[in-house]
C-alpha cells in the first residue's frame, strides 16, 4: 500500500501545537479556511496568537499541517481497511465501503482537499500542493488496484474508479445522498473484469 505523506515538520508537536492543530482541523473543516482567523484559532485552542506563530510560523503553514494530517488520517484508515483483503477486486470494492463510512463519520462537508482548493485560488499555495498530492495518490491507488484485477487497460479503469469515488463524495455532500458510496461501489463492480 502507498504510504502517507511525510509531515510538514520533523519536530514533534508540543501540547500547545497539538491543540492548535486540533482546533484548525475542526474550524477549517467546518467553517472554512478563509473564514477562520488566527484570533478565533487562538481562542478555540486556549492559547495566544503568538504561540500559533511560534509553533507553525504562518497561517499557510498551519493550513498545510491541517491538510497533511487529514490526508494521513484518510490514508491510514483506507490502507487499514484494504490490507487484510485477499485480492485486488475485493480491495477496489472495499474502497467504496470505507469511503461511505468515512463520509458518515468525518465528511459532512465533503472532501477537505476539494474544499481547500476552492478556497485557495492561488495554484501555487502550499495547501493546494497537499490536495493535489492526495488526489494523485488516490488516482495511483485506483490504477494499481485496477492493474491487480487483470484489467486489459488499468489506467483508464483506475481513472473511472477515481471518478466514481469523487462523484460519490460530491453526491453525499451536495445532494445528501447517504447511499452514494454504495451506488459507486455497484458501478465499480460492473466495471471490473469478471473473476
TrEMBL record:
Write down what this protein is called.
TetR/AcrR family transcriptional regulator
The record's keywords, sorted A to Z, are: DNA-binding
One Pfam family this sequence matches: TetR_N
Q: Where is the HTH tetR-type domain?
A: 14-74
Would the keyword DNA-binding be found if you checked this record's keyword annotation?
Answer: yes
Residues annotated to bind DNA: 37-56
Domain of life assignment: Bacteria
This entry's Gene Ontology molecular function terms read: DNA-binding transcription factor activity; transcription cis-regulatory region binding
Which InterPro entries is this protein grouped with? Homeodomain-like_sf (IPR009057), HTH-type_TetR-like_transc_reg (IPR050109), HTH_TetR (IPR001647), Tet_transcr_reg_TetR-rel_C_sf (IPR036271)
Amino acid at each position: 500500500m502507498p504510504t502517507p505523506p511525510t509531515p510538514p515538520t520533523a519536530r514533534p508537536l508540543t501540547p500547545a501545537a497539538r491543540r492548535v492543530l486540533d482546533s484548525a482541523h475542526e474550524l477549517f473543516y467546518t467553517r472554512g479556511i478563509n473564514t477562520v482567523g488566527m484570533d478565533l484559532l487562538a481562542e478555540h485552542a486556549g492559547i495566544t496568537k503568538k504561540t500559533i506563530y511560534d509553533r507553525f510560523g504562518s497561517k499557510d503553514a498551519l493550513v498545510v499541517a491541517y491538510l497533511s494530517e487529514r490526508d494521513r488520517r484518510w490514508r491510514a484508515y483506507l490502507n487499514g481497511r484494504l490490507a487484510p483483503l485477499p485480492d485486488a477486486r475485493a480491495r477496489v470494492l472495499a474502497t467504496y465501503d470505507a469511503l461511505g463510512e468515512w463520509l458518515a463519520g468525518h465528511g459532512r462537508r465533503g472532501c477537505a482537499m476539494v474544499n481547500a482548493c476552492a478556497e485557495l485560488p492561488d495554484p501555487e499555495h502550499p495547501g493546494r500542493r497537499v490536495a493535489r498530492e492526495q488526489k494523485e495518490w488516490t488516482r495511483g491507488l485506483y490504477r494499481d488496484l485496477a492493474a491487480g484485477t487483470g484489467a486489459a487497460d488499468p489506467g483508464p479503469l483506475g481513472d473511472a474508479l477515481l471518478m466514481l469515488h469523487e462523484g460519490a463524495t460530491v453526491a453525499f455532500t451536495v445532494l445528501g445522498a447517504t447511499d452514494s458510496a454504495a451506488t459507486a461501489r455497484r458501478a465499480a463492480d460492473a466495471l471490473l473484469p469478471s473473476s
